[in-house]
Amino acid sequence: MAYPEIDLNLTDEQKALRAMVKKFGAEVMRPAGIELDKLGDPADVIADESILWDVFKQFRELGLHTTGFSKSIGGMAEDMDPMMGILLLEEMGYADAGLTISLYVASMPFAFCQFLPVPELRDLARQYVEDKDCKLIGCWGITEPEHGGDWSLGGDKPECGPSLRGVLKGDEFIINGQKSAWVSNGTIATHSLLHVGLDPSRGMRGQGIAICPLDLPGITRGKPLDKIGQRPLNQGEIFFDDVHLPKEYMIMTPRPASESAGGGGGLFGGGGIPMGSMAVMFGGLARAALDEAIKYAKDRIQGGVPIIEHKNIKLKLFEMFMLTESARSLSRRLQLYNTMSGSSSMLHTMAGKWMSTETAFRVASEAIQIFGGNGLSREYAIEKIFRDARAAMIEDGTNEVLALSVVDDL
Ligand SMILES: Cc1cc2nc3c(=O)[nH]c(=O)nc-3n(C[C@H](O)[C@H](O)[C@H](O)COP(=O)(O)OP(=O)(O)OC[C@H]3O[C@@H](n4cnc5c(N)ncnc54)[C@H](O)[C@@H]3O)c2cc1C
Predict the structure, then answer these.
(1) Model confidence over 325-361: pLDDT tens digits?
(2) 239-250 pLDDT per residue, tens
(3) Less Cβ crowding at N or C end of the chain, within 10 Å?
(4) Spacing, Cα 307 to ligand 1 middle (Å)
(5) What confidence tier does 100 reach under pLDDT thresholds 50, 70, 90?
(6) Which of 252, 198, 226, 222 is nearest to 145 (CA)?
(7) Bridge-partner residues for 195, per DSSP?
(8) In the chain, ranges of CATH 2.40.110.10 domains
């Protein structure tokens, strides 16, 4: 990046972490992402010999999978400050969006486990922290074939409630139904943070959240999903056929009707921090698109000079810079608020997710224009960044649905 960092207060620790992640991103994530993106069959992305596993293992060797886990179980949460989390995600998003999501959701169920009263589940969190061989991988099972936007806007309409149902029998929940092909890490995960309908009469408000080991009898997977963007990110269906889940693994049950009204971002808001993380990482991707464009414009000669000397290219680059920095500023600011205030501003969070994903897409599209014909060639990384950014506008809730889920808070 040729232009200065304008957050003046970065500490040496924050800068050191950013430098470490930047190196990991440039040397490991970016090249692996490009290689994985080119594989024709998404099953090859997760094959035993796939470079995906080198990325996972090196991430864990660096201890980066433990940033959200307490020191008491071997994690590094207490050594991280909110800005460190932001810098880490920006650099990972810069390197490869799909791999960032895969590495991020891999910790999700385990991060919850560390706070639970169930000793077995707390121990699972510790095992995850210690797991350098990537034997434990998490996912977030929420979307279903019949319910996408419903998770944010369905409210208490029974017809919008989860199709995956859990019924309590004795000490177990019996679970039937399926999660959609969009579940990130869906075919490789060992555990899911799983959203389950428990009271169908209350629609989405009648749901519970479970930690579900995915090796329980009755669980099967679909094929890895084939898609246009974030191809290094494994996704796929999870099917549940009379799955017996211990009662204490249902970590949240429906709240009383009196407590569960209101907007606030719906389920995909997830309390703000996960969605704020999306905003931050896609601000990183916008910067990646801008940097690719600047580099190319300095190299490509037309009219006898590098194209960066033409006024139309200069203005385009300036506009891309302006959009990128605006998105990054909002994302950093909202995520600092979400992590430091003890609550979340869902309005800012959804605005940031919209802003940074649309900015990444727009900047990548303008970058393709600067590349000319080469922008469409698979030889250059920019077309991949464009496809990755496009997926982000739908990922974890379409931007429109997320906005509608909070707009009444205005
Ligand atoms: C890269 C990627 C990663 C993902 N990772 C995960 C994951 O880890 N776990 C997981 O569970 N899911 C995941 N998803 C799924 C994602 O959350 C859903 O795709 C998203 O919520 C949209 O749901 P849908 O695809 O069913 O679209 P739909 O809900 O069918 O939406 C179709 C269109 O209708 C609009 N719409 C929908 N409902 C309404 C409404 N009530 N009012 C007005 N307009 C509406 C939408 O804006 C959209 O334009 C991922 C998706 C992507 C692309």
Answers:
(1) 999 999 999 999 999 999 999 999 999 999 999 999 9
(2) 999 999 999 999
(3) C
(4) 40
(5) very high
(6) 222
(7) 209
(8) 138-259
C-alpha 39/C-alpha 224 separation (Å) is 12
Which residue minimizes the CA distance to atom 2 of ligand 1? 395
Report the CATH number of the 266-409 domain.
Answer: 1.20.140.10
Helix (H/G/I), strand (E/B), else coil: 380? coil
Amino acid at 71: K
Diameter of the chain by CA atoms? Answer: 79
Distance CA 185, CA 140 (A): 8
Report yes or no on whether pTM surpasses 0.85.
yes
Predicted confidence (pLDDT) per residue in 2-51, tens digit: 788 898 889 999 999 999 999 999 999 999 999 999 999 999 999 999 99
Residue pair 330/276 in contact by the 8 Å Cβ criterion = no
Atom of ligand 1 nearest to the CA of 98: 1
* Ligand 1 site, residue 334, Cβ cutoff 6 A: no
Measured CA to CA, the distance from residue 59 to residue 75 in angstroms comes to: 14
**CATH homologous superfamily of domain 138-259?**
Butyryl-CoA Dehydrogenase, subunit A, domain 2 (2.40.110.10)
Task: Supply the DSSP symbol for 235.
Answer: B
**Which secondary-structure segment (H or E) carries 368?**
helix 346-371
Report whether pLDDT(255) > 90. no
Q: How far, in Å, CA of 320 to CA of 329, rounded? A: 14
